[in-house]
Design goal:
- The complex is a heterodimer.
- By secondary structure, chain A is α/β, with parallel strands linked by helices.
- Helix content of chain A is 30%, strand content 34%.
- By secondary structure, chain B is α+β, with helices and mostly antiparallel strands.
- Chain B has 15 helices and 31 strands.
- In chain B, strands 14-15-18-19-20-21-22-23 form an eight-stranded parallel β-barrel. In chain B, strands 1, 2, 3, 4, 7 and 8 form a six-stranded antiparallel β-sheet that branches. In chain B, strands 24-25-26-31-28-29 form a six-stranded antiparallel β-sheet, with helices on one face.
- Chain B is elongated.
- Chain B folds into three domains: 4-139, Immunoglobulins (Immunoglobulin-like); 157-507 and 521-567, TIM Barrel; 581-585 and 594-735, Sandwich (Immunoglobulin-like), CATH 2.60.40.1180.
- The chains are: A alpha/beta, B alpha+beta.
- Chains A and B meet through helix 2 and helix 3 of A and helix 4 of B.
Chain lengths: 106, 747
């Protein structure tokens, strides 16, 4: 159950596709990818989480990292997260800075 | 620049190591690895044991090389660990010689006393695998929660209204209607309720990791499984209880609890933790090896000269709180909760134990208590002592305080209860309690803020049971009703337990209102027991420590059934918040230092200015001068409170107000809703300004209002006011007869 993720950046919008598990084994890789966005004019960070099955605290930390280091003013979106993942995010209080929705409108 | 100190210097099998840093204790994430550091004075060797999460057998056992020990500390960095997926423990070798205090057993895997998260009981009530060689498993946690601008609220303690609650019991009942019953997340969901009630502080019964299966057994009476439900028995002091977190199964309890604290703060509600430093879950000689016993028994526990455990806690062992190592652990722990979790204060269970020396004798100036009082990180935290222990030390009024410690005022509870049930000869004591117990605290210049006032707490009857039972009914606990307190000073109002008798039920509700009124007009800090605001019953069980079931869970349907009680609590809390005269931080001076014509507090009875202090009295009244509110720094109405705990009605002559001022009724517990309590600002003007017939077993609260200062008002309003004033001057009001109460109360 390897996590596959892809990061694309286009016209101020960073799109991150997540799948499988996001935990300590692969979160640092994602973080490295996201670091490349530092200093760019990121207006939106959009995490697509439809196929994400599990997120651990390390995974959540990457999202916090993205928010804090890439663009404090950037709006963070979490799209299509499964119930289980969404619950972890809500219970741990990370939902306060994210727009959570089922689908993403360009 | 390449830092040499981030690189391994040693190897053990496939593991890369280097000597660790001795401080801080615990497991700390460092660049490239994890620094493990643990104290033991008497161990001869130590091994680090590493498991994958939940794995039955360790994947590695790494002995600390001799060169990695500094003094009495074993410290080692292990590189390239997947720290999120491991659990770690230690094995220690050393003497087994109980007479000398040593109980080393190198076969036992021991939890780090500084573990920041603990696995093994991830979901509440899921029966653990008792054959697991490592029951309570230390985990490593990153402290990187995003607090944004959160900060402890630092509400002055005299302005607090504390709500004591059990995390699980608060929402576990199916009627709670929350998504994750019994958890931190569920409390978050109930914040709107807490706000509606008006409390501004929650005091959480123990939330440190404990084992709900400790001493678990089947009740011979009910056949139900009894649990260690309250959790006054710590496994680890630095870790939140995983089973209280909806996300505990994901190992996210740390974040979930932080999210709760943050959200409570956002809503103006402080968080006080009930901390249990008097003993641990390891029990006595026959208890399990969890941590301390196998790491350095002689350091962590108070031992008799023969090496047995002293039992000042009533729970098998006593933590050696004034050993410098343990003292520092306690300090580190509190600092951690204050700094990392932003908690606002602590309530110390059986705090008198914290003032005993290493032989168990009480000390005059216990270094631990002094250290906590002066600690810079805890500098704004509330420190509240349960100022007694199970070894017979009772320090209410004399707990060493350094101007910082407040106390659970057990005398307040007892005196108000006796007065409430109609005992005579209580008015002198009750007068002290209402004033913030100057008899206990003034001689030490401690102020009324030293007194945490409460009538009910988790120990003992709920408020509804206090007025419904004469005797405790703890049979379900399976100890032949021997457990729990016998001195309850309760009165069942005529019948033991629930009844259909409307008169008795009416009286019970009235007694509840009397109690909460007295509590909320008292100087000092009031504490309400969760559930009392909706008439929670435990069916006479006054010690539900083991009842993880409907006996102890809060039944939210009571909110509808007893909305009269809830409404009264809510409005009474609002009343306290609206009146600074009730929230002084210093004791009264019994004189007029503001030139108002009235002393800050004056005592009255059925005759104004003449309280009946005799041994047969059951009536008392007092008036607070609004110009002396908060030591004269705030302005308030005058407040008059008359308490008639006699079963006959009595007419109380009211003290005269300055010319133009008028008395308004805020509370009259003898009346049915909506006339029992009036919203702040909408109090009912009293027709007869000279006296008030206070019903049997009733309390009234009046506010004396100054005529409103001249301001630009519309003609109509001015006219109306003129009319109002003239009617008072002509004395129309005083002609009105006060109607006699219709009901007779039964004794």
């Amino acid at each position: 159950m390897e996590t596959k993720f892809s990061v694309t950046f286009n016209e101020g919008v960073a799109k991150i596709e997540l799948s499988g598990r996001l935990d300590a084994t692969n979160a640092p890789l994602l973080q490295e990818e996201l670091k490349k966005l530092i200093g760019q004019d990121v207006k939106r960070l959009v995490f697509f989480a439809k196929d994400l099955e599990y997120i651990s605290s390390a995974g959540l930390r990457v999202i916090i990292f993205a928010k804090q280091k890439i663009g404090v003013d950037a709006q963070v979106y979490l799209i299509g997260a499964q119930e289980e993942v969404l619950n972890v995010i809500k219970m741990s209080g990370l939902d306060n800075f994210m727009v959570i929705s089922d689908s993403y409108d360009e | 620049m390449i830092r040499v100190d981030l690189h391994p210097t040693h190897t053990y099998g496939k593991f890369k190591l280097r000597p660790g840093k001795p401080l801080p204790f615990g497991a700390t994430i460092v660049p490239g690895g994890v620094n493990f550091s643990i104290y033991s004075r008497h161990a001869t060797s130590c091994e680090l044991v590493l498991f994958e999460k939940h794995a039955p057998q360790p994947f590695a056992v790494i002995p600390f090389p001799d060169s990695f020990r500094i003094g009495n500390v074993f410290a080692m960095v292990v590189f390239d660990l997947d720290y999120e997926n491991i659990e770690y423990g230690y094995r220690m070798d050393g003497p087994f010689n109980p007479k000398e205090g040593h109980r080393f057993d190198k076969t036992k895997i021991l939890m780090d006393p500084y573990a920041k998260a603990i696995g093994g009981r991830d979901v509440w009530g899921v029966e653990p695998n008792w054959n697991d060689i490592y029951q309570h498993r230390a985990r490593i946690f990153f402290d990187d929660f995003d607090w944004e601008d959160d900060h402890p609220l630092e509400i002055p303690i005299e302005d607090l209204i504390i709500y004591e609650m059990h995390v699980r019991g608060f929402t576990r009942h199916p009627s709670s209607g929350v998504k994750y019953p019994g958890t931190f997340a569920a409390i978050k969901e109930k914040i709107p309720y807490l706000k509606e009630l008006g409390v501004n502080c929650v005091e959480l019964m123990p939330i440190h990791e404990f084992d709900e299966f400790e001493n678990s057994r089947i009740s011979p009476v009910t056949g139900e499984r009894l649990m260690n439900y309250w959790g006054y028995s710590n496994v680890g002091f630095f870790a939140p209880k995983a089973g209280y977190a909806a996300s505990g199964k994901f190992g996210m309890q740390v974040d979930e609890f932080k999210a709760l604290v943050k959200e409570l703060h956002k809503n103006g509600i402080e968080v006080i933790l009930d901390v249990v430093f008097n003993h641990t879950a390891e029990g006595n000689e026959n208890g399990p090896y969890i941590s301390y016993r196998g790491i350095d028994n002689k350091t962590y526990y108070l031992l008799t000269p023969d090496g047995y455990y002293y039992n000042f806690s009533g729970c098998g062992n006593t933590l050696n709180c004034n050993n410098p190592i343990v003292r520092n652990m306690i300090l580190d722990c509190l600092r951690y909760w204050a700094a990392e979790y932003h908690v606002d204060g602590f309530r110390f269970d059986l705090a008198s134990i914290l003032g005993r020396d290493q032989n168990g004798a009480p000390m005059a100036s216990p270094p631990l208590l002094e250290m906590l009082a002066f600690d810079p990180i805890l500098g704004k935290c509330k420190l509240i002592a349960e100022a007694w222990d199970a070894g017979g030390l009772y320090q209410v009024g004399s707990f060493p305080a350094w101007g910082r410690w407040a106390e659970w005022n057990g005398k307040y509870r007892d005196d108000i209860r006796k007065f409430l049930k109609g005992d005579m000869g209580m008015v002198g004591a009750v007068a002290q309690r209402l004033q913030g117990s100057p008899d206990l605290y003034k001689w030490q210049n401690r102020g009324s803020t030293a007194s945490i006032n409460f009538i009910t707490a988790h120990d003992g009857f709920t408020l509804m049971d206090l007025v419904s039972y004469n005797e405790k009914h703890n049979e379900a606990n399976g100890e032949d009703n021997r457990d729990g307190c016998n001195d309850n000073y309760s009165w069942n109002c005529g019948v033991e337990g629930p009844t259909d008798d409307p008169e008795i039920n009416r009286l019970r509700i009235k007694q509840i209102k009397n109690a909460v009124t007295m509590l909320l007009v008292s100087q000092g800090t009031p504490m309400i027991l969760s559930g009392d605001e909706m008439g929670k019953t435990q069916w006479g069980n006054n010690n539900v420590y083991c009842q993880d079931n409907e006996i102890s869970w809060l039944d939210w349907s009571l909110l509808e059934k007893n909305k009269e009680i809830f409404n009264f609590f809510k409005k009474m809390i609002a009343f306290r918040k609206a009146h600074p005269a009730l929230r002084n931080c210093s004791h009264f001076q019994n004189r007029d230092y503001m030139g108002s014509g009235y002393a800050d507090i004056t005592w009255h009875g059925t005759q104004a200015w003449n309280a009946d202090w005799s041994g047969t009295s059951r009536t008392l009244a007092f008036m607070l001068c609004g110009k002396h509110a908060k030591g004269g720094t705030a302005r308030d109405n005058n407040i008059y409170v008359a308490m008639n705990m006699h079963w006959e009605p009595h007419t109380f002559e009211l003290p005269k107000l300055p010319p133009g001022w008028l008395w308004y009724v805020a509370v009259n517990t003898d009346m049915l809703p909506p006339n029992d309590i009036w919203e702040v600002g909408k109090e009912k003007k009293l027709r007869d300004q000279s006296c008030f017939l206070v019903g049997p077993r009733s309390v009234i609260v009046l506010v004396g209002k100054e005529p409103q200062e001249k301001k630009i008002v519309s003609k109509g309003a001015r006219k109306a006011r003129k009319k109002q004033l003239s009617s008072v001057r002509s004395g129309k009001g005083s002609k009105t007869k006060v109607s006699k109460p219709k009901r007779k109360e039964r004794k």
